[in-house]
Structure formats: structure tokens, C-alpha cells
């Protein structure tokens, strides 16, 4: 996920405004509906208020990216869809030009994330689906990483437990469709990674390792 190339050109009254066709108010500010070609060749078509993009509009970037949605005082604010230069797409909430609130992100490799966002990052409750395996993570996110309680749902089993820094850590259990549970915990195993050259330093890599404590049978749910 990259936001490189998705920064909009700011329109400051009297400075680098580009060409404009549309409505104006008594003060000759851009006000109402208008079309603008900006100095960097980006274009905007939509609503203005007192010289700022405000209301619904479409902003097209010269690199092929596009935003369609709501603006407030010159910034993406409210609900909108952004098509990014790398082929990904975000549909959801915005606050002052950044992904905030609930939204869905479609990644170039086919992965998807639906859930809460804060300051452009996955943050809060959300579901990430991996396209290649159809594995899903449902749970808590913090600053773009899996962190807190969650579930990794695979084709015929699932892991339920705690996560930290994007990895399973601490107590948890595997639930298998065959009717049993494996209880245990993840601990980080420390390993030194050799440097590529003599000038580089060794890197310490932490890998989560599963340790099983016991296996139990999943109790059947009796129906009346």
C-alpha cells in the first residue's frame, strides 16, 4: 500500500490557480460548480466554496490516479473512493485528506481489508482477506499491524488468540474442523540473520514458535 503520487495540488487564492471555468461569487472567488486544470496538469471538476474544493467532486491526477467523493475546505473529507497509482483502491471515510473511519481497501495482489482506519492506517476492528489462500484475519489492528485479540481463519481450522506487532504472541488455541482444539502459546524465538556484506551488521530476527500444552475435544452443541 503506497500513497506516493496521491497528493493533491493545493489551490491558494491568487497563487498558481491554473485555468478555471465555472461559477464565482461576488468576491470573484471560485464558488459553486467549476472545472479546473491545475498548473501540474491535474484536473478537478466539482463543487467549490469560497475558492476551496468543497462538496462533491472528482480529482484526476496526471499519473492516472483519481478521487471521487466529498471535500471540505479544500481537503478530502467525508465519503469517497480513491484509485491509487499502483492499481489499488480505497472506498470509505476520509478526514482532512487521510483515510479515517470505516472503509475497504482493495490491494493490487487481490487482498482486501474492510474495517476501521486511523490516519491512513488499519486501526481498530477489521478483516483482512489474503487472496492466494483465502485465509482471513478478523480482529484488532494498531497502526497498520495486527495487535490485540483476533482470529486467523483457514480452510479447515482457525487460530484464536493474541497478536502483537503483526505476529501471534502469547496464549491461544487452534480449532480444527475434525472436532478438537489444540491449546498452547506462541513465544518469540530469537535468531541472528547473517549480514549480506562485511560492512553490514547482523540483524536479530524474532520468529513466533507454537508450543502445544494440551489437546481437547470440542464439545458438541446440543439442540432442543
Mean pLDDT: 91
Put simply, the count of helices is 0
In whole angstroms, the N-to-C terminal distance is 49 Å
**Helix share bin:** under 10%
- Pairing-aware structural class of the strands and helices? mainly beta
Q: Report the sheet with the most strands, covering strand number, pairing sense and barrel closure.
A: 16 strands, antiparallel
Description:
This protein has 224 residues and is mostly beta strands. The N and C termini lie far apart (49 Å). The chain contains no helices and 16 strands. Strands 1-2-3-4-5-6-7-8-9-10-11-12-13-14-15-16 form a 16-stranded antiparallel sheet, with no helix packed on it. The mean pLDDT is 91. The radius of gyration is 24 Å and the shape is elongated. A hairpin with a 3-residue loop joins strand 12 and strand 13. The protein is 0% helix and 63% strand. It has a domain of 108 residues: Histone H3 K4-specific methyltransferase SET7/9 N-terminal domain.
Briefly, what is this?
Functions as part of axonemal radial spoke complexes that play an important part in the motility of sperm and cilia. The chain is mainly β.
Give the topology, please:
Elements lengths: L18 E6 L5 E8 L5 E7 L2 E9 L5 E7 L2 E9 L5 E7 L2 E9 L5 E7 L2 E9 L6 E7 L2 E9 L3 E8 L2 E10 L3 E14 L9 E15 L7
Antiparallel strand pairs: 1-2, 2-3, 3-4, 4-5, 5-6, 6-7, 7-8, 8-9, 9-10, 10-11, 11-12, 12-13, 13-14, 14-15, 15-16
Amino acid at each position: 500500500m503506497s500513497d506516493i503520487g496521491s497528493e493533491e495540488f493545493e489551490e491558494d487564492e491568487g497563487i498558481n490557480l491554473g485555468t478555471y471555468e465555472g461559477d464565482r461569487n461576488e468576491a470573484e472567488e471560485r464558488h459553486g460548480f467549476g472545472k479546473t486544470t491545475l498548473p501540474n496538469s491535474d484536473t478537478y471538476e466539482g463543487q467549490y466554496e469560497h475558492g476551496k474544493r468543497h462538496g462533491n467532486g472528482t480529482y484526476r491526477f496526471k499519473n492516472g490516479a483519481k478521487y471521487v467523493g466529498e471535500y471540505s475546505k479544500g481537503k478530502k473529507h467525508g465519503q469517497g473512493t480513491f484509485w491509487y497509482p499502483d492499481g489499488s483502491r480505497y472506498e470509505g471515510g476520509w478526514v482532512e485528506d487521510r483515510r479515517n473511519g470505516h472503509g475497504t481497501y482493495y490491494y493490487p495482489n487481490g487482498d482486501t481489508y474492510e474495517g476501521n482506519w486511523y490516519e491512513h492506517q488499519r486501526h481498530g476492528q477489521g478483516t483482512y482477506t489474503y487472496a492466494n489462500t483465502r485465509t482471513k484475519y478478523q480482529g484488532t489492528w494498531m497502526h497498520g499491524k495486527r495487535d490485540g485479540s483476533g482470529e486467523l481463519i483457514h480452510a479447515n481450522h482457525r487460530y484464536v488468540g493474541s497478536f502483537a506487532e503483526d505476529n501471534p504472541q502469547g496464549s491461544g488455541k487452534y480449532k480444527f474442523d475434525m472436532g478438537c482444539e489444540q491449546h498452547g502459546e506462541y513465544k518469540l524465538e530469537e535468531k541472528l540473520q547473517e549480514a549480506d556484506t562485511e560492512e553490514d551488521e547482523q540483524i536479530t530476527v524474532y520468529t513466533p514458535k507454537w508450543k502445544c500444552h494440551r489437546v481437547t475435544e470440542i464439545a458438541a452443541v446440543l439442540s432442543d
